[in-house]
Amino acid sequence: MKSRLILTACAAALMLGLPAASPALAQSAATAAPAPAGVTVPPLGFQERTLPNGLKVYTARDTSTSNVTVQVWYRVGSKDDPEGRSGFAHLFEHLMFKATENFPDETFDRLTEDVGGNNNAFTSDDVTAYHETIPANHLERLIFAEADRLGSLVVNESVFESERDVVKEEYRQGVLASPYGRLFSLFVPATIYQEHPYRRSTIGSIEDLDAATIEDVRRFHSTFYRPDNAYLIVAGNFDQAQLDGWIDQYFGRLSNPDRPLPVNDVREPEPTGPRDVTYYAPNVPLPAVVLAWPTVRYDNPDRAALTVLDGILSTGESSRLYRSLVYDQQITSQTSSSLDASQQAGALTAFAIMAEGKTPEEGLAALRAEAAKLRDAPVTDAELAEAKNELIAGALRERETVEDRANVLGWSLINTGDAASADREIASLQAVTAADIQRVARRYLTDQRSIAIRYLIADEANPATVQDVDVSAPIKVADLAPVGRIFELLPEGQRAAMPTPGEPVEPATPPVADFRLDNGLRVLVVEKEGLPLVSARLNFDAGSGDEAEGQAGVAAMTAALLTQGTTTLSAPQIATEIEQLGASIGAGSGPDFTNVYANAPANVFPQTVTLMADLVRNPAFAAEELDRQRSQTLDGLRVALATPGPVASQAAARVIYGDAPYGAPGSGTLTTIPAITREDVVAFHQRRYRPSEATLVFSGDINEAEARALAQSAFGDWRETGPVDARAAPIGAHLPPRVVVIDQPGAGQAAVTVALRGISRTDEDYFPLTLGNTLLGGSFTSRLNQEIRIKRGLSYGTRSSLGVRREDGLFTASAQTRNDAAVEVSDLILAELTRLATTQPTDSEMTTRQAILTGAFGSSLETVDGLGSLVANLALYDLPMSELATYAGRVRALTPEQVQAAFAEHLPTDRASLVIVGDASTFIDALRAKHPNVEVIPLTELNLDTAALK
Questions:
Q1: What's the CA gap between 196 and 343, in Å, rounded?
Q2: What are the C-alpha distances in Å from 361 to residues 287, 347, 385, 720?
Q3: Is the pTM of this model over 0.85?
Q4: For position 725, what pLDDT does the model report?
Q5: How far is C-alpha 764 from the chain's CA centre?
Q6: Residue 789: which residues within 8 A CB-CB, separation 6 or more?
Q7: pLDDT confidence of residue 710
Q8: Which of 632, 279, 332 is nearest to 457 (CA)?
Q9: Which of these, 120, 103, 85, 60, lies nearest to 224 by C-alpha position?
Q10: Tens digit of pLDDT for each residue in 638-652?
Q11: Rounded to whole angstroms, how far apart are CA atoms 169 and 182?
């Protein structure tokens, strides 16, 4: 499902320095293959009932899983933020994870992560939703907890101030530090909507956050958090009668306020003519343009045709936008579109990030031309079939887990109030005709209704555009309900008892069939019952660690070019075939391996694997495709080098590995990418893509006999030529620690990374280090997150990664924070790392981390891709398949002594390096006082081709 969020997600590929996706062209109708027979998307199958207090309850029992998901969707979103309090619904989402009168702060994390589950929440225009997935025996505890935070949430001054600081850091990270954050988060909605509160950003503004008071927050909760304004969704392994009893017991006793909800039903006026606006911002490495048209709300019958139109315009590798703007004209580095059909209004938005040297006017003209084509002529039968196949296959994937199915239901309820609308969606999409698409294009995508946006780099003549915070809203602070009862955490002896867990439901690990073809290709098969989906992973020993000196990026370039033409199929033909199948096929490389992957409905999986084999065995590596990929990669690198987080990650690898292959950026550099030749790519493919060195993993709705026949048909006659290319050591010598600052004046945030040379995946200390890393920074309840986010509000989130590889891996612990807090955050990271190496985790910490690891493992077993990934990762490192069955036992057998000893041996802070990317003027003096040997490198002088970084 595409939404406004796709705009930020698409731009994120550039922000992270990834090559932009390389969609190919649509095949002509004359040569298009017929669409395969459609797949059946099963109904969601939820039962519905309403409690006397108005709470609507939806439940679906599924005994094939050991888990259960609990979700509460409240009909309050950013459109309901009071005037002068933008970001309020989102701020309150954070507060809902704090205490109630019966349990203290962070209990939700204790009830979920600490037992092997997960929890999260999100806020959008019309909804704030809270969701947890847990082992099924903990269900009663979650029902109790969700009801308790609805009925007796504690909101005090310290929690309010801390979470407000966290949200400010989220704003700085997602809006200010991201090159296109201002465009997609602030300026696009503010321009599209003239009257509707959708024009305000969900995250709000620093000014409005600062203006909020604790009384405002309490009144907001009293107004919107009530049983008759919520949907409770439960899906998974439970006893229906028992669950109904718990819901009645805990939710049934809650009451509603004696006043109606505020009225908020603004109708966006019809456009009176085209609009055109230009925004300026710092740190815009490539100009961007947006062309948008107001369309329809979610429940409008035209949404189905607009959804298919959107798919034809930008979904998949044969989309019209890619063909025109990226492939043919080569004027943009990335382009996409999104239909944002919300509860009360909607818009279709197309965007393009320009290629180096291309102008915004070229981008806008090209977007307008594509809209005109949709108005002027019907789409082809092939395009219509492709779009429908992709949408239907996507709907199938969206129903794979109990959590997925609950999400689909939740969105339907919020947007229509009708649980059955999600199941009718499939038939609506299938009924769309070419005439319908042309009709809605002529109705909505006209020049007179268009909104053009240019997003350009600020300079002295054009200063940065300031966010407009003086925006009216239909709900005023005065409209909120008065503060009700103010709750405080009760003394422990007076609290309602937390229900005890039931008997655990253990996940089963399926058997793995293991055989080889005559050419040496290893094949692993793991069958999974459920939806008719199958995935394949073909892995090669071909990573950036295998690249020759000066060829950084050749492994990634080789993988990216696999889908861009074979000896018998052009890139357009490949793209069309993938989309007609409703399949997903792609490839990517890492430090040690390349993974070619495919996922498809079971009825078209044989054709998918046949195509996958052709891509791997017979790539053309055409010169013109290499040129396109080079240009897109370079544009992606330019954006990455303007973003603190990716810069810090790439610099950290150089600091740890120096000039060794592991130290080079996997995506290449501004120097190496232009130098890669077709001969380099062909040679890398010939040396590293060999059946005797490869592993093929099938997972999903496929048995061993079917997999054996399919593997033999697609790969059995594949023969390798030439000698095996011996693998050189990619890690280099151990290097002394460094402290490096990369100075980016005016950066929206600082990225702080502590890095050490770690271990290989096969090291005997892998399991104790994995558990310790989860305790350090591998979950929301980790020590780093507690110290940096929860206690001090210095970051939206922290993380650490063991970063294992075939040889010594790259351990990192990182956070993004406001610039002036960079030194404090680096000290906190180092202190927590020292603590793990010098003191043993508590028994409670060991128990909860063990549950987190085994719970995540169990969750991976529930999807075809997750299951296949587990099997493939064992094979990549030549580990026995028996580790699937022994994983949980090995984790539970770990001791505190093993964790401390492993950190003391492998990750002592006296060997740690520190990299900070940000505005050095705000922190360099404090850092130099602690680290006199600090190296300061201006971002404009950064050189990732060398260990010196300059």
A1: 12
A2: 10, 22, 33, 50
A3: yes
A4: 73
A5: 32
A6: 166, 169, 795, 796, 797, 798
A7: 98
A8: 279
A9: 85
A10: 999 999 999 999 999
A11: 15
Contact 20, 635 (CB under 8 A): yes
Structure confidence at residue 38 (pLDDT)? 54
Q: What is the mean pLDDT of residues 544-567?
A: 96
* Burial classification of residue 796, based on how many CB atoms lie within 10 Å of its CB (0-12 exposed, 13-18 middle, 19 or more buried): buried
List the structure tokens of 518: 């005559």
Of 48, 83, 93, 362, the catalytic one is 93
For 632-647, letters b (16+ CB in 10 Å) and e give bbbbbbbbbbbbbbbb
Q: How confident is the model at residue 797 (pLDDT cuts 50, 70, 90)?
A: confident
Structural contact between residues 585 and 46, judged by C-beta atoms closer than 8 angstroms = no
> Would you tell me how many other CB atoms lie within 10 Å of the CB of residue 614?
18
Residue pair 364/354 in contact (Cβ under 8 Å)? The answer is no
Q: Which two tokens stand for residue 781?
A: 């309840």
Q: Which two tokens stand for residue 766?
A: 């892998």
What is the overall mean pLDDT for the chain? 92
pLDDT above 80 (res 31): no
Amino acid 840 reads Q
Orientation of helix 766-777 relative to helix 843-860, angle to 10° = 100
The residues, ordered by sequence, that sit 6+ positions from 895 with a Cβ below 8 Å of its Cβ are: 846
**Cα gap 900→898, rounded to integer Å:** 6
Closest C-alpha among 304, 299, 399 to residue 46 = 399
Residues near 869 by Cβ (< 8 Å), separated by ≥ 6? Answer: 537, 860
Question: How many Cα atoms are found within 13 Å in the side-chain-facing hemisphere of 345?
Answer: 22
Beta-carbon-side half-sphere exposure of residue 485 (alpha carbons within 13 Å): 11
The answer to whether residues 689 and 616 touch, using CB atoms and an 8 Å cutoff, is: yes
Q: What value does the mean pLDDT take over residues 464-468?
A: 95
Annotated catalytic residue 897: no
Residue 682, burial from CB neighbour count under 10 angstroms (0-12, 13-18, 19+): middle
DSSP state of 691: G
Closest CA to 579 of 611, 557, 556: 611
Burial class (CB in 10 A: 0-12, 13-18, 19+), 350: buried
- Look at residues 782, 812, 798, 776 and name the one whose alpha carbon lies nearest to residue 914: 812
- At 151 the three-state DSSP class reads helix
Residue 287 CB neighbour total at 10 angstroms: 21
Tell me the C-alpha distance between 589 and 14, whole Å. Answer: 17
